[in-house]
Amino acid sequence: MNKSQTISLWGQLELPDGLLFGTDGIRGKAGDLLTAALAMRVGYWAGQVLREVSGDHAPVILGRDSRNSSDMLATALSSGLTSAGLDVWDLGMCPTPIVAHVASTTRAIGGVMISASHNPPGDNGIKFFGATGSKLAPDLQQRIEQAIRGDLHIESTHGDNVWGQHVYRPELLEGYLSHLVAPLIHESATPFVGLKIVLDLAWGAATRTAVDVFERLGAKVIALHESPNGDRINVNCGSTHLGNLRDAVKLHDADLGVAFDGDADRALCVDSQGRTVDGDYILYLWGKQLLQRGQLPDATIVSTVMSNLGFERAWGKLGGTLIRASVGDQYVHAEMVATGAALGGEQSGHILCPRFGVSGDGLMTALHMADLVQQSGGNLADLVDGSFQTYPQILRNVRVDDRATRLNWQSCRPVVDAIAAAELAMGDKGRILVRASGTEPVIRVMVEAQTMAMVNEWTDKLVALVDHHLAS
Length: 472
Known about the structure:
Layout: H1 3-8, E1 26-29, H2 36-54, E2 60-64, H3 70-83, E3 88-93, H4 96-105, E4 110-114, E5 123-130, H5 138-148, E6 166-168, H6 173-181, E7 196-200, H7 210-216, E8 220-224, H8 243-251, E9 256-260, E10 267-270, E11 276-277, H9 279-292, E12 300-304, H10 309-317, E13 321-325, H11 329-339, E14 344-345, E15 351-352, H12 362-376, H13 380-385, E16 393-399, H14 403-407, H15 413-426, E17 430-436, E18 442-449, H16 452-471
Parallel strand pairs: 2-3, 2-4, 3-6, 7-8, 7-9, 12-13
Antiparallel strand pairs: 1-5, 4-5, 9-10, 10-11, 14-15, 16-18, 17-18
Helix pairs in contact: 2-3, 2-5, 9-12, 15-16
């Protein structure tokens, strides 16, 4: 069977008019956009592009979260990759950062994760990593998409009847876990003895690793939503719904709580008072520790346009520099590479620290936050009290189903004029950010100011205008 015969078996696909690849791979409703036919086509052309770039017959690492559709998409994607002549090393259900780590530490030419991260159970996604563990470069994603659409011809690099093998490799997870734990072991193999922590595993990928790692280090763990459940992943739990975690931390008088999202590439914390410790606080506290240890070049942290002004000004008082990138961990990573920064991340809990991991990693973040608490001899609330006060901030989502309208919202003069008026009125006492989401059909409106009254006033005005002019 030659290449054209292979592709013809897959039939015609109904592809959207807009780009398939967004800010975090391909994401959409399983069975709607994300079908087995699409996944197989994506796998085949991704395999061709990866082989073209690497010139190698090395394997591709494959992982998935607990969604009901993940096995279907993983199987179809693997069929495409193996039909392109590549071997697939299947890790099974696992956190996204494991795929990135294994890709970077083996002879693999890339990795792919089946997950929609923090999205609801009915959604899913396909995101690729390069051989270094970083997200696959945009130009390579563009080549894959062009090939899928028939707009790019790539000559097959393997002969007829040469197929790859699908091999189950769950043992590769242990190397990742050992890599995470090693920097935390000093005088004792169980440095977290005496630490009580609540983990919200969101019925997702963290259920495979998180409890084991913390208990291995000696912590007492109370686990919530601790088994994989494709019907309930992210539903009223995890990093987007912290209520259950707050209650459990207070009930068990824990030192801290940590909530993961569905694929465990992000983490948020809760202190003993029930306060949310988001990515801004994590960056400040971890950055301060790294700075004291001489491990933070130029006292620089990379965050995003979403980070709170309170964080920025507090970090400046320590003599540090905060660089803001666009929202998305790939943009944070690019800015870190460009500036040589050793720590970066997002308010939502995607944290990158190349010293300890190659990608945004919720479990890595959780372990180092626990280490901070243990090293301080107190609890997370004490560390938060000694950090900074956030400016009041509201983030509201306005659903805008039409993709073209959503992505071109800046052409709407009434909205743009209202933003300019708000910025003029607030001056240096606040700021506004309006942006189209890269993963959901919404426009996000964020207002931040010194007073809650000012935040409420401008949030209500801007949300009403976006809804009136763009959502209808």
